[in-house]
Structure formats: structure tokens, C-alpha cells
């Protein structure tokens, strides 16, 4: 303890001298004016200044738009008194929109420990014996440096840890050890995928249709309440991603849209992982003021944060400070400043409290010390960061465990868990058929607006069909044209299938949207696949009809309506199979670059084994014939199209002899002589389209099962405090 005390005194003196401008300029020329008319005194970083209460004037405008205006009049209530609730809120004018009240819930965690195998270098414990609570109508922030266990703790409270995690300890909701049912809580990820081609109101409305049961009027009301709660009224009818003539929403508004999506369910508890992620100072302050308004409606807010400004820090109610999984403090935000001062690390003036906290407990500063230990500036050593942070962490942890703040937390936990409160109930889900209809209609709307992924692809298909058709036009129907027509059909099927790789970004975006919605139980694997299939059918049918008509008549294939319909249907099934293949590869790779590389490789192998470069029966039996030629959809599509064109036809050889279409193709392509074999090829294409989607279902369902097993583990570990 003597070593810790000496190190603490050293840090206190060094941080004060290093931070003070008096160390860089003469003290006689640098003063801090405490009050008008007071004597000028040099800045002292040993003690915090006595700040006067900053008075504010709260103005509620018509329509519910709030604005906070600083004022100097003594009649306005002080900010500290407003936050503490000692003064009543100003009366609302007539016609003002009042936010809907939310019945919050208390959340308590006691001796919560989380272990993740391989997460830490020296220990698997990511969170160690954490205690804390969150009350209705308050904002509880979990703060700490990177890899301190912030996200792990909030995910443990919400039941969203990975499968490799193990949880020990107890979690109480309204004094009851039970898992939170669907709709009683919301969770906002650090990074979420929004649908840029929808407006804010449309996006939230479709989300409400997926989440909520009941009538449409109730869902519209929930959407409008969420828009009002997150102050998105000015952006409600704007596209999230914008278009070529209008920019999309700023990052701050996008973040508020993701929070509004969870507010549609009107949850009792809202978890947010890094609400200020990638936000500037103005957007961050606006976000926290909006969340403060939301907390005042009664909702329980728990979120993580890495760093904040002084203004944002003043809006927090309670803070849980973590470092390397250890709880260094839990309690009121102002008490945290006093805690650091008691431990020997007072916060210097003109420095943000969160910056000071992270400076004291972030071990990454030790690397900066090692880099700067030999540096010198014009006035001496760079000694602003010359303390061992491990000593500071041990000092703060030891001080907190023996402090009155830790005892107060334990007393509050006992009080909150002593009596059971109302049990949270599930709010119900939308039915299965409604979810499929919503996803199908939403995907159709997205396709109609995403010109880069869909309409541009239609133009490319038409252009490719026009190029191939004009290149192979005027072939005639002689025996010598058979080989050239086979080449034209092969090029058409192969190149159009290869061109479908342009849809990889759209498929990846749909998978990310599904993953986000499935994590919040808004959607399901089967619902997603059925909706994606039904919505893609009109677009693929449009592609097949337009491209087939251009190619069919330019090449000069047989003039028969039934043959034209089969050609279109065959090409449609080919595109449907290819879409399933693209979806399967995108699900496996989850990356645009590797998805494109893998798809190009697969298409090259399938084209080589399709029977054009070498007749299928002559292919080497290992690998190329079995199994590659049998799993290449090019083979069945080209076979069906050639059988549709040549079976039942004949070519005159001289004046007496004639040659059937099957015999004419024997040297160019391997087909069947059966008249109905083309329908067998069409059936194989249909089964392949279904098979690819079954594989996608298995892959996605496997991930869902891992999540479900994790939730069961979380529920069991709440009931029993023993490791598995």
C-alpha cells in the first residue's frame, strides 16, 4: 500500500504540473478568474473550482420540439436541481405534444462474471464480479477503455453473448430472476444495417409490421410515437440512404433511426451499445439530450460509451466504470469524481471527466510513456503521462471496495431484490403469414428503387442479349448452322449467368438486414428465404422475358410460341438457380470480394464441364464428369434449350437422305433423343433452385440454433450460480 500511495502522489503531482499552463508560461501572466471582481489567482489543478450553477431555461415549442437555452436569470431552475428532480418541471403550453409514458423496469446484476475462452491473453474472465443496478427513468452508462468488458457486460445483461461465453452470477428484473420476454426490452447494436432506399417512416412502419401483432392503426401510432421520441419529425419522409439528387441522413440521425426501430415495441428496458459511435460532438450531444428525454418518459436506459464531452457526461445518472473487467466504480456521476479525488487522482479543471477517467485507467498510455520517455520539449520532459496505470487501477479498485459507495450499491441491490415486482409479459408477435407478406412487399419496394443493383442489371442483360444476338444473327436453318447455334446458346446462358454476380452487393445487404432483424427476433430464417424468393420472382421473370425475346428473334430460332415459352421458362429457372447459388456463396463468405472471387471460380468450372468445349460423355470421369458436370446448372439449361430447338426436326442431306436434329447435334453437343427429356432438365433446374435455398436455410438455421442454445444457457445460469 505504501508503494501504491507513493505512486498515487507522484501521479497527482505530475498530472497537475503537466496539465497546468503555469508550467509552460510564467504564472504572473496566466490567471484563472473565479468571479467578477475577485482577486486574480494562479490556476491550481490540485482542487476543482467551485462552479456556479448554470441556470437554464426550458422552452417547449408548439409541436413538441424542445430547445434548451442557457440563461443568466436567477429565476430559472439550475441544471443540477432539474436533474435531481428537486424542482417541478415547467408547465406545458396548450397544444404541446407530450411523449407517451413508458412503464420502466428495474434491472439488478449481482456478482456477475463472464468468461469467454480465448478472449483474454492471461485470463478468460472478461467481466469479474460486477455489481450494479438500473432504475426506471434513468440513464446508466457503462464506461471504460477498449477491451474493458463494456460490450460484454451489456450483452450479458441482455442475454446476447456468443456461444463460447459462460455466465455466473444473478440478474434480476423487477426483483425476479427471469429472462426478459419478447417485446419487454430492446437492444441496439453498435453497427446496424439500415435500408437506404426507404424513408424513415417507411422503415419504421415495416419494422412495426414485423414486430407487432394487432391492427394497423396501433402500429402506425407506435411508429409516430417512436419518431417523436427520437426527434425525427423533420426526417420522417426522407430517404435514409438518399439518391443521386439528395444526400442520405447524417450519421447522428441514422443512429437515432436504429434506436427508434427498437422503440416501436415500447420496451421497458433499452440496451444501446455505443450510442455515440462515429458521432461528432454536436451529434453526440443531440443524441444524449434525446435519450435523456426518452428516459424522462420512464424507460430504463443502459448503454456503453467509450468517451464523452463534459456536457454529455453531465446528463448521465449513474456510471459503471470498468477496466480489464474489474469494476472500479458504480454510482452517481458526481460521486465518481469524488471517488477519483479520494483515491488521489482529482480531475483537473478544463479537462473532461471522461478523459480524466480513461487517462487514469487505460493501460494503452503505458506504451505512450515508453515512446516519450526520451523525448524533451523546450521546457523539459514530456511528463504529462508518466504514471503506471496498473497502479492507478489497483488503487481505484481498492478504494472503491472499501468506500461507502460500494456499500450503498449493495444496500440498494438488497432493497431491489428483497421484494418481487410485476413480472414482465410478452407483447406478442406478428403471425407467420403477415411476416412473409411484409418482407415480400418490402423487398419489391427496395428492388423498384435500387437502380444500381436491379435496373442497371436489367439494362446489362438487355445489352448482352443484343450483342450476342447481333453477333450470331442470320444463321439460317441449314445443317452447317447447328454448331454455330450451339455456341450462341452456350454463350447466352453462360455469360448471363456470370453477369448475375453484379447482384452480390444486394444479396449481402439483404443477409445483413436479416441478421439484424433475426437477432432481435423480428424475423426468421424460413420467413426470410420465402420472402426473398417471392420478391425475386417478378424481377427474374422480367429479366428472362426481356432477354429471351431479344436473343430468340435475333438468332432466328424456330417460330413457334410454345417453343418460345419453354425457352423463356428454361432461362427463368436458370436465373432462379443462379440466384440461389449467389445467395449461398454470399451467406458463406459474408464479404463482397471473396464472394465475387468464389462465384467467378465456380462459374468457370461449371462452364468448362457444361459439355461445349468437350462433349459431356467424353469428359474424364473422375472429377469433371462425376460430380462436376452433374452439379453444373449450365449443363441442364443448355441441354433443355437445344432439345427444345432440335428434337423433332430434320435436315435434308442431298435429295434422298435426311438427318434428324438429334443426329445433327451428336458431334456438337450431347443431348437425349426423348421428346420429353427437356422437361426433365427443367425439373432438375427447379430442384437445384430449391436445393440451394435449403442449403442456405441450413447454414442460417445453424447460426440461429447457436443463438438459441446460448439463450438457454443464459437462463440456466441465472437460476443456478454454478458453472457448467
Automatic annotation (TrEMBL):
Domain ABC transporter: start-end pairs: 107-349
Subcellular localization(s) per the UniProt record: Membrane
Coiled-coil region(s): none
Recorded GO CC terms: membrane
Family: Belongs to the ABC transporter superfamily. ABCG family. Eye pigment precursor importer (TC 3.A.1.204) subfamily.
Protein name, UniProt field: ABC transporter G family member 3
Region named Disordered: 1-26, 61-87
Keywords noted in UniProt: ATP-binding, Membrane, Nucleotide-binding, Transmembrane, Transmembrane helix, Transport
Biased composition (Low complexity): 13-26, 76-87
Residues spanning the membrane: 454-475, 487-506, 526-555, 561-585, 592-615, 679-700
InterPro entries, per database record: AAA+_ATPase, ABC2_TM, ABC_transporter-like_ATP-bd, P-loop_NTPase, Plant_ABCG
Main localization, broad class: membrane
Annotated GO MF terms: ABC-type transporter activity; ATP binding; ATP hydrolysis activity
Topology class, membrane: Multi-pass membrane protein
Keyword Nucleotide-binding tagged: yes
Keyword Repeat: no
Native organism: Sesamum radiatum
Amino acid at each position: 500500500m505504501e508503494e501504491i500511495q507513493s505512486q498515487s502522489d507522484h501521479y497527482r503531482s505530475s498530472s497537475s504540473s503537466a496539465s497546468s499552463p503555469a508550467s509552460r508560461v510564467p504564472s504572473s501572466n496566466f490567471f484563472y478568474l473565479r468571479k467578477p471582481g475577485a482577486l486574480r489567482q494562479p490556476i491550481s489543478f490540485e482542487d476543482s473550482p467551485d462552479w456556479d450553477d448554470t441556470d437554464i431555461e426550458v422552452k417547449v415549442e408548439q409541436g413538441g420540439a424542445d430547445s434548451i437555452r442557457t440563461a443568466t436569470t436567477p429565476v430559472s431552475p439550475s441544471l443540477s436541481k432539474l436533474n435531481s428532480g428537486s424542482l417541478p418541471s415547467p408547465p406545458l403550453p396548450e397544444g404541446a405534444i407530450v411523449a407517451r409514458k413508458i412503464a420502466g423496469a428495474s434491472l439488478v446484476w449481482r456478482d456477475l462474471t463472464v468468461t469467454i475462452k480465448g478472449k483474454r491473453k492471461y485470463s478468460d474472465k472478461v467481466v469479474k464480479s460486477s455489481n450494479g443496478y438500473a432504475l426506471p427513468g434513468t440513464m446508466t452508462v457503462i464506461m471504460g477503455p477498449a477491451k474493458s468488458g463494456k460490450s460484454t457486460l451489456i450483452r450479458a445483461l441482455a442475454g446476447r453473448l456468443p456461444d463460447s461465453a459462460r455466465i455466473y452470477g444473478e440478474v434480476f428484473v423487477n426483483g425476479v430472476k427471469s429472462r426478459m420476454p419478447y417485446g419487454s426490452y430492446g437492444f441496439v447494436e453498435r453497427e446496424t444495417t439500415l435500408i437506404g432506399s426507404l424513408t424513415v417512416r417507411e422503415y419504421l412502419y415495416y419494422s412495426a409490421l414485423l414486430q407487432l401483432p394487432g391492427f394497423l392503426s396501433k402500429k402506425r401510432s407506435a411508429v409516430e410515437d417512436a419518431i417523436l421520441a427520437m426527434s425525427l419529425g423533420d426526417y420522417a419522409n426522407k430517404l435514409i440512404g438518399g439518391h443521386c439528387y439528395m444526400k442520405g441522413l447524417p450519421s447522428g440521425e441514422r443512429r437515432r433511426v436504429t434506436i427508434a426501430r427498437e422503440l416501436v415495441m415500447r420496451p421497458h428496458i433499452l440496451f444501446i451499445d455505443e450510442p455515440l459511435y462515429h458521432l461528432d460532438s454536436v451529434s453526440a450531444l443531440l443524441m444524449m439530450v434525446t435519450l435523456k428525454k426518452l428516459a424522462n418518459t420512464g424507460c430504463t436506459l443502459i448503454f456503453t460509451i467509450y468517451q464523452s464531452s463534459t456536457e454529455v457526461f453531465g446528463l448521465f445518472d449513474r456510471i459503471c466504470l470498468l477496466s480489464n473487467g474489474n469494476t472500479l466504480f458504480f454510482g452517481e456521476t458526481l460521486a465518481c469524481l469524488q471517488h477519483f479525488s479520494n483515491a488521489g487522482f482529482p480531475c483537473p479543471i478544463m479537462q473532461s471527466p471522461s478523459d480524466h477517467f480513461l487517462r487514469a485507467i487505460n493501460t494503452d498510455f503505458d506504451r505512450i510513456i515508453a515512446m516519450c520517455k526520451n523525448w524533451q520539449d523546450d521546457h523539459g520532459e514530456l511528463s504529462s503521462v508518466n504514471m503506471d496505470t496498473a497502479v492507478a487501477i489497483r488503487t481505484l479498485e481498492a478504494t472503491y471496495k472499501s468506500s461507502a459507495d460500494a456499500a450503498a450499491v449493495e444496500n440498494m441491490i438488497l432493497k431491489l431484490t428483497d421484494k418481487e415486482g410485476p413480472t414482465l409479459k410478452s407483447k406478442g408477435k406478428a403471425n407467420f403469414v403477415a411476416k412473409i407478406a411484409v418482407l415480400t412487399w418490402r423487398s419489391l419496394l427496395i428492388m423498384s428503387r435500387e437502380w444500381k443493383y436491379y435496373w442497371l442489371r436489367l439494362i446489362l442483360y438487355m445489352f448482352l442479349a443484343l450483342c450476342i444476338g447481333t453477333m450470331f444473327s442470320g444463321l439460317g436453318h441449314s445443317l452447317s448452322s447447328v454448331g454455330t447455334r450451339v455456341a450462341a446458346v452456350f454463350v447466352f446462358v453462360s455469360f448471363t449467368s456470370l453477369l448475375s454476380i453484379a447482384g452480390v452487393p444486394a444479396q449481402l445487404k439483404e443477409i445483413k438486414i436479416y441478421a439484424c432483424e433475426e437477432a432481435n427476433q423480428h424475423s426468421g430464417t424460413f420467413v426470410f428465404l420465402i420472402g426473398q424468393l417471392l420478391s425475386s420472382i417478378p424481377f427474374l421473370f422480367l429479366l428472362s422475358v426481356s432477354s429471351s425475346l431479344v436473343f430468340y428473334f435475333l438468332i432466328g430460332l424456330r417460330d413457334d410460341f410454345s417453343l418460345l415459352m419453354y425457352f423463356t421458362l428454361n432461362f427463368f429457372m436458370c436465373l432462379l438457380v443462379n440466384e440461389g447459388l449467389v445467395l449461398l456463396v454470399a451467406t458463406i463468405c459474408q464479404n463482397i470480394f471473396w464472394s465475387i472471387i468464389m462465384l467467378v471460380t465456380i462459374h468457370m468450372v461449371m462452364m468448362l464441364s457444361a459439355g461445349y468445349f468437350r462433349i459431356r460423355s467424353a469428359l474424364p470421369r473422375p472429377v469433371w464428369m462425376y460430380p462436376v458436370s452433374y452439379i453444373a446448372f449450365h449443363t441442364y439449361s443448355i441441354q433443355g434449350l437445344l432439345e427444345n430447338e432440335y428434337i423433332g426436326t430434320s435436315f435434308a442431306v442431298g435429295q434422298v437422305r435426311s438427318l434428324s436434329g438429334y443426329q445433327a447435334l451428336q458431334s456438337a453437343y450431347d443431348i437425349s433423343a426423348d421428346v420429353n427429356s427437356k422437361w426433365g432438365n427443367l425439373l432438375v433446374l427447379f430442384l437445384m433452385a430449391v436445393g440451394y435455398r435449403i442449403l442456405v436455410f441450413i447454414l442460417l438455421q445453424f447460426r440461429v440454433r447457436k443463438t438459441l442454445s446460448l439463450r438457454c444457457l443464459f437462463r440456466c445460469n441465472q437460476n443456478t450460480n454454478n458453472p457448467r
